[in-house]
Amino acid sequence: MTTTASEARQRYREGLVAPTSGAAGGFTQANLVVLPADWAFDMLLFGQRNPKPVPLLDVTDPGATTTALAEGSDLRTDLPRYRVWRDGELVEEPTEVTHLWRDDLVAFLIGCSFSFERALLDAGVPVRNIEQGRNVSMYRTDVDCRPAGRLSGPLVVSMRPVPASLVPLAVQVTARMPQVHGAPVHVGSPESLGIADLSQPDFGEAVEMQPGDVPVFWACGVTPQAALMASRPPFAITHAPGHMFITDVADAFYLEP
Amino acid sequence: MTTTASEARQRYREGLVAPTSGAAGGFTQANLVVLPADWAFDMLLFGQRNPKPVPLLDVTDPGATTTALAEGSDLRTDLPRYRVWRDGELVEEPTEVTHLWRDDLVAFLIGCSFSFERALLDAGVPVRNIEQGRNVSMYRTDVDCRPAGRLSGPLVVSMRPVPASLVPLAVQVTARMPQVHGAPVHVGSPESLGIADLSQPDFGEAVEMQPGDVPVFWACGVTPQAALMASRPPFAITHAPGHMFITDVADAFYLEP
Lengths: 257, 257
Known about the structure:
homodimer, alpha+beta, PSTPO5379-like, PSTPO5379-like fold, 6 helices, 12 strands, globular
């Protein structure tokens, strides 16, 4: 039985806590960042200036609790787990945030690489983190994002080992999905991104390279969380890693011709 | 002799007043909207929510006079002609706006269909407005943009007559350039956009259909000007129609794979 997006959201709303990987297949999942209106311009500009790591799928009106990406959804309850940040420090990981919601909060829904992993598999490109049952490896780089107002921080990338002969195909497939991070930012040469040791990711888990694999790096939706940690707004809510918001939008919608 | 973008900007800065169509071929031209910081969040959100008519190529920091799209440029002098708006009314069309610039102004550089007209010609699709030496025909539609804060207004479209057999090619070519309005929003049937008479455009000039031509409609960069007229911010500066900002970015940069 396939689960629809609204059924999946309903279960999380009713208390299910689990990573969303593989839930409601074919529906686009999104990273969540929620900030007070006073910081919303900076975040919107940060997304506009850094579209590869921060592809904005929707931005809500201040105080709104739902998004145009999912009718009837409630952003306060429909993710399985949240993170609450004060002055850039993680203070809590609750399973709903109704008690924390305020009239001045603006929510940012940001594209997620889950959408293109499915497209890679469909094209015959193996996705090692899925094969190995692990979270994808993510790294802080020494590349700075273009700052916006008070927000700045490093580009965070996810890495997927890709067989050398399939690297061009992996580039082509993901290039067609610019709203979910798009083409890789880098192929090979982790050291030129300031990554000393691929086996020591900053976020997620280490994923093993197979013989003949090349490390391919995509801009990652953890980038805005890294900017929050670096820039310390007084208050923010995000999704917890791997516990995304499931939209009603089909992944295919974000496929460019 | 080809003119570079910086040479063209220099001439306008020194006083040349002329439409920019055909100037500095191969370099991306941009629509300009400048608003006080108080309105900048609404405009940025309007662009985020309406990416086809308002594809944001760059947004400046408050008070900045240059853009990352063109090093050494001066947004106050480098367009051949500007429009100044007060409370949604056009009050002046000066050739530079140095005397009007303020520390709280934010500039929005917005993609322009000049980029895709060149791509259409290169692909063998005739561009009737260029053939006829006229400005493209533009129409207010009865389709509303998605509002953002205080900004709302109708979708404005440009129309180009395309030979029926070349309509699919015209769609394919422009779909590859989402940052300069992308694929058409509508093919044929002007009445279903609320356009009663193609020979009476709301902006630009009437362009004659040739036998076998079909009207093809693209989202248009005049849309934000229509929103300014409808939403009446106290102060705004825009480019004058056809008198665009010439960036240092090659048109090919905005071509998706």
